[in-house]
TrEMBL record:
Annotated protein name in UniProt: Magnesium transporter
Annotated TM spans: 287-306, 318-336
Upper classification of the organism: Bacteria, Pseudomonadati, Pseudomonadota, Betaproteobacteria, Burkholderiales
GO MF, any single term: magnesium ion binding
Catalytic activity: Mg(2+)(in) = Mg(2+)(out)
GO CC annotation terms, alphabetical: plasma membrane
UniProt KW keywords: Cell membrane, Ion transport, Magnesium, Membrane, Transmembrane, Transmembrane helix, Transport
Source organism superkingdom: Bacteria
Main location: membrane
Membrane topology term: Multi-pass membrane protein
Localization per record: Cell membrane
Alphabetized InterPro entries for the sequence: CorA_cytoplasmic_dom, CorA_TM1_TM2, MgTranspt_CorA/ZnTranspt_ZntB
Role of this protein: Mediates influx of magnesium ions. Alternates between open and closed states. Activated by low cytoplasmic Mg(2+) levels. Inactive when cytoplasmic Mg(2+) levels are high.
Length: 344
């Protein structure tokens, strides 16, 4: 995506009429030809939409249903769209209502090495962009400031801004998955150096499960962005479609990286199991070798311990040392053979 690289302005003010919602309204700003015009109170939203040179960007965070109902009525979203924006979502989705397009994107952050999921709903309409953020910890003020620093970008309309917002969410995916890549590398090293212990196996299962959850959360975004890039929709201009296609390609690359991390954990676990089996085989061979060596004196001692009166060499002066010498020679020969075979 394009980066103007210029200095960022101050954080956008919240409209006066939004104070009653206790900070739920992050920003409600009108732009004319890409330049900030005014902070718009909630009760005046309807008069700022549907104008060709004006863009209303309204963002709310963890909103109360009453606020969503009021904003939906001001934007004339319709009952079906109103029902969708009130409902939290676990998976990405897209719905075209004709006058507006609703896009639900799952957000991804990390708490240590565990993923945290939230959602951002984007309602793209004629002259307005309404964003609803739930559970996401990363603010979108950096994106707003970057776009405000380049009015030509904001002047392209709500569909272009929506593509930039989706691209910003993909940047958060990249940041989180890059951190997880380091976690997976550490897990691989531990498994290959010291083998798989019970705690390591439990941690490995949890990490693979987290990566699967990340895949389920971000993979549908690629298809959603492709649909925005290919399917004709009233709220999406044809000139904005290539930007959604670019976002789709980025999502695909990230999903491929997530799949590669899951495979890496699986291969590391298999390698540790093979190493463990090899060590067990070495131990088994050593035990079998020593058991064979010790079987010689055990057998001889067992025979002479039967306490029969008439047994060979009982009265011979050199019987005892010769027996010990025979045991020693037999054990030494066995030790040499096992050592030569690599069992000892």
């Amino acid at each position: 995506m394009q980066d103007p690289g210029s200095s960022a302005p101050a954080a956008p003010p919240v409209a006066q009429g939004a104070g009653e919602y206790n900070g739920e309204v992050v920003a409600s700003i009108s732009y004319v030809k890409g330049r900030r015009d005014a902070a718009v109170p909630i009760e005046q939203i309807h008069s700022y939409v549907g104008q060709s040179e004006r863009l209303l960007w309204l963002g709310v965070k963890n909103p109360h249903p009453e606020l969503l109902t009021r904003v939906g009525e001001e934007l004339r979203l319709g009952p079906k769209a109103m029902e969708e924006i009130h409902e939290p979502h676990k998976r990405p989705k897209i719905i075209d209502y004709g006058n507006v397009v609703l896009v639900v994107a799952v957000t991804l952050e990390l708490d240590g090495d565990r993923p945290l999921f939230g959602e951002t709903q984007l309602v793209i309409g004629d002259g307005f962009l309404f964003t609803i953020r739930r559970g996401s910890t990363a603010p979108y003020s950096a994106l707003r400031e970057r776009l405000e620093a380049a009015p030509d970008l904001l002047a392209r309309g709500s569909d272009y801004v929506a593509s930039e917002l989706l691209d910003f969410l993909v940047d958060r995916y990249v940041h989180a998955v890059t951190k997880l890549e380091g976690v997976v590398e550490n897990a691989e090293q531990k498994l290959l150096i010291r083998g798989a212990k019970d705690a390591d196996i439990r941690r490995l299962y949890r990490q693979r499960r987290d990566l699967l959850r990340i895949h389920n959360a971000i993979a549908p975004m690629a298809e959603i962005c492709r649909r925005l890039a290919r399917v004709e929709m009233t709220a999406i201009d044809e000139h904005a479609r290539p930007y959604f296609a670019e976002v789709a390609d980025r999502v695909m690359r990230i999903d491929e990286l997530v799949a590669a991390l899951r495979d890496a954990l699986a291969f590391a676990f298999e390698a540790s199991l093979m190493m463990g089996q090899s060590q067990q085989n070495d131990t088994t061979r050593r035990l079998a070798s020593w058991a064979a060596i010790l079987a010689v004196p055990t057998a001889v001692a067992g025979i002479y311990g039967m306490n029969f009166k008439y047994m060979p060499e009982l009265d011979w002066t050199y019987g005892y040392p010769m027996t010990l010498a025979g045991i020693g020679v037999a054990c030494g020969l066995l030790y040499w053979r096992f050592r030569r075979a690599g069992w000892l």
